[in-house]
Amino acid sequence: MAFAYIAAYNDTTEGTKVVWDKNLLSPTVIPGARRRQDAAWLARLRAEGIERLVASAPAPPREFYQGLEEFNLGQYWQAHETLEEVWQHTEYPLRLFYHGLIKLAVGFLHLERHNLTGARIQLQRAISYLGPFQPSFIGIRLDDVTLEAERRLKDAAQGEGWDSLDGLPRPRIQWALSE
Fold this sequence. Notes:
The chain is mainly α. 55% of the residues lie in helices and 11% in strands.
């Protein structure tokens, strides 16, 4: 019987667990590893609090501010792309914060495109990921925009009509006056 050498690591850019068996020609990807890791970090954040896990958040990169500006202009797809650059290079637990902002942008894009199922999935994940960082974090208010996401999901689910939702002002991420 041949011995199979297996090495495992977390690929932070893809967030999947990759297992390498030298008897195989390519690595085997274990589906769902990043979601499990996200869930574990969310549970830890909720139990211990952001203050305990992040003594002081590093200054956000330029792309963070660019992504917020794109979001506030309603350029949700571009905001998603810009923030993804930050997210891919960020470690836990701050990684969840950026991932929540990405989900928020994608969720509002789905609402804009009248895709209730996509909006519901993405906005609910955004609300969950951003919850531990509320009411504000690294200079931005999260409570108002997540409350707006909840309102719009509720209105869409209750059949308010897309015309009514389309007529609402664009959601905005506001700057926090103080933290």
